[in-house]
Amino acid sequence: MKLTYRSDTDSLYIDLAERPGLESREVPEGVVLDYDSSGRLTGTISTMPPTRSNYRN
């Protein structure tokens, strides 16, 4: 398993397998699951919701 955080998109990718993902499905908004050609989960990406400190009045 490999974790990759991208600060420019505020997202976290969890790589679960060495196999490439061929299909992606968004489950709840902000969570995408990647599947290989056999339908096995290969990874997931999650975008982080903004925190309250990011909001300005």
Task: Describe the secondary-structure layout.
Elements: E1 2-6, E2 11-15, E3 23-26, E4 31-35, E5 41-47
Antiparallel strand pairs: 1-2, 2-5, 3-4, 4-5
**Helical content, roughly?**
under 10%
Distance between the termini: 40 Å
Q: What is the number of E strands?
A: 5
Q: How many strands, what sense, and barrel or not for the largest sheet?
A: 5 strands, antiparallel
Number of domains: 1
**Order of strands side by side in the largest beta sheet?**
1-2-5-4-3
- What characteristic shape results from the CA principal axes? flat
- Beta-sheet strand percentage? over 45%
Overall pLDDT metric: 86
Query: Helix-strand pattern, N to C?
Result: EEEEE
Q: In angstroms, what is the radius of gyration?
A: 14 Å
Can you describe this structure?
With 57 residues, this protein is an all-beta fold. It has one domain (2-48). Helices cover 0% and strands 46% of the residues. The protein has a 5-stranded antiparallel β-sheet, with no helix packed on it. A hairpin with a 4-residue loop joins strand 3 (23-26) and strand 4 (31-35). The radius of gyration is 14 Å and the shape is flat.
